[in-house]
Amino acid sequence: MHLWAQIRVQETTALKSSTLSRQSNSVSCCFCDISLSLVVESASPKMMSFEMNDRKKIGLGLTSFGVLFSILGIIFFFDKGLIAMGNILFVSGMTLTIGLKSSVQFFMRPSNFKGTISFGAGFFLIIIGWPIIGMLVETYGIFVLFSGFWPTLGVFVKKVPVIGWVFQQPYVRSLFESRRGKRMPV
Fold first, then answer.
1. In which region does residue 81 sit, left (phi positive, over 0), alpha (psi from -120 to 50) or beta (all else)?
2. Burial of 51 (0-12, 13-18, 19+ CB in 10 A)
3. Max CA pair span of the chain
4. Phi and psi dihedrals of 164, rounded to 5?
5. pTM across the whole model
């Protein structure tokens, strides 16, 4: 009975302070150590659903460099080397960010076939030496692929302080609401 009372006091202290070090409140019994570790886990805050681990950080970096290289390729008179590097970095970064399985499911979804084929054909046109036509075809593919995310992006942009005010104006709001589609989860 005395051991149970000691554990109960430690559990109450752990829940109140929520910063518990395991060494300072350990009990000599192995069973008590296990129950104490459960209290520590329940006192810790819950994790977000989109946890930012190292793989996702690298993926976001690669995606950013992909966009940067593509922009530089356009600035430097449609340099096919920079644009091709940008495409490779963009696709590999997106794959690292959301995962291989999710990327394959995203690109192979029947509603995204037109965008996937357009993006691939544009990349092929860039590689064979037609960067302007390739970029136009790729841009069309990107707009078709990510068309489900535009409403979600619109909701986010409306919450940005200065830009949100512009999107709250009646004319701009009516323009976007007329083209409103199904919202995709982020």
1. alpha
2. exposed
3. 82
4. -60, -35
5. 0.61
d(CA 142, CA 169): 28
Return the structure tokens found at 109: 């979804």
**What is the C-alpha separation between 44 and 50, in angstroms, rounded?**
17
3-state secondary structure of 169: coil
Residues 28-37 pLDDT 10s = 444 444 343 3
- pLDDT tens digits, 46-74: 544 567 899 999 999 999 999 999 999 99
**What are the angstrom distances between the C-alpha of 88 and each of 66, 111, 184?**
7, 23, 25
Sequence-ordered list of residues with C-beta below 8 angstroms from that of 167, at least 6 positions apart, any chain: 154, 157, 158, 173, 176
| Helix, strand, coil percentages in the chain from 3-state DSSP, rounded to 5 | 75, 0, 25
